[in-house]
Amino acid sequence: MANILIVDDDPAVQLTIRLLLERAGHHVTVAGDGRKGLAQFEANSFDLLFLDIFMPGMDGLETMRHVRALQPGIPIVVISGRSITPDAYAEPDFLKMATKLGAVASLQKPFRADALLAAVDGCLKAVESEGSDVNASRR
Q1: Which residues are registered as beta bridge partners of 31?
Q2: pLDDT tens across 30-41, in order?
């Protein structure tokens, strides 16, 4: 199965995602903030990244910029406890920002287990099909 990095500052969210993914057969690494997540990302090879947008210190958007510079093709699922839908009078549209930086899916906390697992499956299948397309074109 996949090697997945979770970067979130909420221990309850870390535990929930980790348990769901491990039960689905994936190997999971957890980091509590963007700097630690980036260090884990640089030291290991991952197939998928779950990234909280709102964290103290290095936030998810900044972390995503660094990750994209290192590995442009890795699928990233952004997660957030705040509303990620646009509100023209309140906050910037963080989902739009994350999408521009390459996020392929988003989940709002609290999320359902089936939504999380569907996001993982969709991301991994997309990567597999891209890999098949690349391998087929090399023949």
Answers
A1: 7
A2: 999 999 999 999
How far apart CA 29 and CA 49 sit, in angstroms, is 10
- Radius of gyration from C-alpha coordinates of the chain: 15
Distance of CA 9 to the CA centre of its chain: 14
Cα gap 59→64, rounded to integer Å: 9
Ranges under pLDDT 70 in the chain: 82-93, 95, 131-139
The per-residue pLDDT for 97 is 76
What is the structure's pLDDT at 135? 39
The whole-angstrom separation of Cα 82 and Cα 77 is 15
Structure tokens at 110: 């609290």
What is d(CA 51, CA 7) in angstroms, rounded to the nearest whole number?
Answer: 5
pLDDT value of residue 82: 63
DSSP assignment, residue 111? -
DSSP E strand stretches across the chain = 3-7, 27-31, 48-52, 76-80, 103-108
User: Which domains, and CATH codes, for the chain?
Assistant: 3-138 (3.40.50.2300)
Of 74, 78, 79, 72, which Cα lies nearest the Cα of 99?
78
